[in-house]
TrEMBL record:
Residue ranges of the region described as Disordered: 42-70
Pfam assignment, any one: TonB_dep_Rec_b-barrel
Domain TonB-dependent receptor plug: 89-196
Similarity-based family: Belongs to the TonB-dependent receptor family. Hemoglobin/haptoglobin binding protein subfamily.
Protein name (Swiss-Prot/TrEMBL): TonB-dependent receptor
Ranges where the TonB-dependent receptor-like beta-barrel domain occurs: 257-649
Keywords: Cell outer membrane, Membrane, Receptor, Signal, TonB box, Transmembrane, Transmembrane beta strand, Transport
The UniProt record lists the keyword Signal: yes
Signal peptide interval: 1-27
Compositionally biased spans, kind Basic and acidic residues: 47-70
Length: 694
């Protein structure tokens, strides 16, 4: 048992630009919302806040307009924005993935949430380790370590979840996913510089219900997940989610390197929901995860030095969290949130073993209020992150970050609403950090315009993407590093006419002091054999736009999206600039879904990824564009839903373009090039979902 390579890579903020938050807001029912409210400002007791919650619940989602057109509209509250107003009327833009889409993606990949978030506009899931398949989430071109991953508003996976963590979260018990793009440091601290992804769990009802899902794949993978919800005692409900997941190590192209890492994973998460007679609510959860993952060279194969190089990671995670809300007087709500996470990792990099542990803690309390024109919240928080390595203790760190935060939403008139939020933190290593955010909503009729500007910071840790992939053995002890800082801004236009939705977002970011790896020679040969972390010169600059079009025709929904990114960084030691690696300038998607709720669904997906600049790839400097095509179908008969999914119909593999293995080991310790395409080839999965209860 051992290990904690959690990406506490907190690194960042300051510059100037435009970065966005696109998409929309829709969520679960009022029941779900009022009990799960993650943040003080959004939590309002049912009794005292009926009228105000009515505003909350009105959060309708342009992104899922079909439900509003063809079904009874469910009222909802969005947790992630810390705002008490309707989605339509709140300046902060939140994009929502609802339960219906979660079920679609769970049929495609029930073992983790990577596909669930990857197919959202402006979101890119970037593979960081060709050996283990780990990945992080990039929002609108910003580095993946800047994305804060929350569960019901709590950092249960750490203030910055390690890349592998994304692959250890099953979607079974999710009610919705909320995404805020652009700096959200004023809302959640330094680890949310690039944005927030909040995983909101399903809220149990008043009867026993549940489901079980069994899935198998053509690559010798199996998943079994289950979800049960039930009333327990008066005013209390509970849910339990569990999963068992297996994947056989697979060398698809027979080059001696495993393309699909093997793993055995077990997860268990109980949740409790309680509502008091006077409007109090309490949500609590405990999570347990255990995984054994392996990759590297296939049995009998070697790398170029003639030796085998296996790469393994054993993970154990235990986390716990609670959210408590209590009405105070007629218009105030007290909110307390707390969470703790402990994760151990035992890494194997060839002959090197790294044993480490990561811990993360949060304690937060706030008071929220409202009036006819105003929502406000003010609170205090304490966050702590610790990393302890038994093997390389020179990289141990302990960050303690107390802070104060506030947010004010003000409605000037029915067309104009403004939101101002700010956070002041005292970092024990990087001193005082001030993170403001200003958002403005203007809604003249059917057109909705949102503009946002924010600043934030990120406290450096050793775990940039290359180090997560290669380990600490070749990393020089950290020198003096400055915190990364950034400014982001965006302007968003949304227009809906009959059955057509359209959205255009223009965004940008300027990032200073980006932490990057620098290779150097330490053995007198002149050949780089070690790396060190340094703050990059100049600014990383990102400019881009998102376009979304959606059309509804009877039971058919058509969605088209396009993302343009101009992401550049300054070349070290020069005045010239170059594209940021692994950032396609052009990407697009098209989805056609035909669905009759409760009977069947059939869908086709096509995603295009454009040319990317590659770092230290001896075979090519730029990737080739590629398409990813998929087909899925599901039919429901009574309580049984049978599904089949065909992924990567064109059988795209990066190794069809060039070898994955390097001729010589990189200075960081990696034996492979970065992944810019896919390496799993054509794959089919099929299974059955069984629902039970009333």
């Amino acid at each position: 048992m051992a290990k904690a390579l959690n990406t506490t890579t907190l690194l960042i903020s300051l510059g100037a630009v435009m970065a966005c938050q696109a998409a929309t807001v829709q969520a679960a029912t009022v029941q779900q919302d009022s009990s799960l409210v993650d943040s003080p400002d959004i939590t309002v007791s049912e009794q005292q806040h009926d009228e105000h919650e009515h505003e909350h619940e009105h959060h309708d989602d342009e992104h899922h307009h079909d439900e509003h057109k063809h079904e009874n509209i469910e009222k909802i509250v969005v947790q992630a924005s810390r705002s008490g107003r309707i989605a339509d009327e709140q300046p902060i833009r939140v994009e929502l993935i609802n339960r219906e889409e979660i079920e679609e993606k769970a049929a495609m990949r029930p073992g983790n949430i990577s596909m669930l978030v990857a197919e959202t506009g402006g979101v890119r899931v970037q593979t960081t380790s060709p050996a283990l398949g780990s990945a992080n989430i990039r929002l609108q071109g910003l580095y993946g370590r800047y994305t804060q991953l929350l569960a019901d508003g709590l950092p249960l996976y750490g203030n910055q979840a390690a890349s592998i963590g994304l692959l250890q979260i099953p979607p079974t018990d999710l009610g919705r996913v909320e995404i805020i793009k652009g700096s959200a440091s004023s809302l959640y601290g330094g680890s949310a510089l690039g944005g927030v992804i909040n995983l909101v769990s399903r809220r149990p009802g008043d009867t026993l219900n549940g489901e079980a899902l069994l899935n198998i794949t053509s690559r010798d993978g199996q998943d079994f997940t289950t979800y049960i919800e039930t009333p327990l005692i008066d005013n209390m409900q509970g849910s339990l989610t569990g999963g068992v997941h297996h994947q056989a190590s697979t060398d698809i192209d027979k080059d001696g390197w495993i393309d699909l890492a093997g793993y055995e994973r077990y997860t268990l998460r109980p949740r409790l929901y309680w509502r008091g007679d006077n409007g109090q609510t309490l949500y609590s959860t405990i999570g347990v995860m255990s995984e054994r993952r392996s990759g590297g060279t296939a049995p009998g194969a070697t790398v170029s030095n003639g030796e085998a190089f296996s790469q393994t990671q054993d993970s154990e995670r235990l986390d716990a969290g609670l959210v408590f809300n209590m009405p105070v007087f007629d218009t105030l709500t007290l909110n307390t949130r707390a969470s703790a996470m402990k994760q151990q990792h035992l890494h194997g990099y060839g002959l090197v073993t790294e044993d480490d542990q990561h811990e993360s803690y949060l304690l937060e309390s706030s008071i929220a209020g409202y009036s006819d024109h105003t929502d406000w919240v003010i609170g205090a928080a304490y966050q702590a992150d610790k990393f302890m390595s038994d093997t390389f203790s020179a990289f141990n760190y302990s960050y303690q970050v107390p802070g104060l935060f506030s947010q004010l939403d003000y409605v000037f008139n029915p067309k104009v609403t403004a939101s101002v939020s700010a956070r002041l933190e005292q970092h024990n290593e990087f001193g005082s950090q001030f993170s403001p955010r200003v958002s403005l909503l203007y809604r003249p009729g059917d057109l909705t315009i949102r503009a946002s500007y924010g600043r934030g910071y990120f406290a450096p840790t050793p775990f940039v993407e290359e180090i997560e992939a290669a380990g600490l053995s070749r990393l020089e002890a950290l020198g003096e590093l400055a915190e990364e800082s950034a400014q982001t801004a965006s302007i968003d236009f949304t227009y809906t006419y009959d059955d057509i939705e359209s959205s255009l977002t223009l965004f940008g970011s300027d990032i200073k002091n980006v932490t990057t790896l620098e290779s150097f020679a330490s053995n007198g040969t002149g050949l780089p054999n070690r790396v060190r972390l340094v703050n990059a010169q100049g600014e990383s600059q990102i400019r881009g736009s998102e376009l979304l079009l959606r059309y509804y025709w009877q039971d058919i929904k058509l969605t088209a999206s396009y993302l343009y990114l101009d992401a550049t960084e300054q070349v070290a030691g020069a005045l010239s600039r170059r594209d940021i690696a692994l950032t396609p300038k052009h990407s697009a998607g098209f989805v056609a879904m035909w669905e009759q709720h409760g009977n069947f669904r059939a869908g086709f997906e096509a995603y295009y990824t454009g040319v990317q600049r590659l770092n230290d790839n001896p075979f090519t400097d730029y990737s080739k564009p590629y398409w990813h095509l998929g087909l899925m179908g599901e039919i429901t008969v009574g309580r049984f839903s049978w599904f089949i999914n065909l992924e990567n119909l064109l059988d795209v593999k990066q190794t069809d373009e060039h070898p994955m293995l390097l001729p010589n080991r990189a200075a960081s310790g990696q034996w492979t090039t970065d992944i810019w395409s896919r390496n799993d080839g054509f794959i089919v999965n099929a299974g059955v979902r069984v629902k039970f209860g009333s």
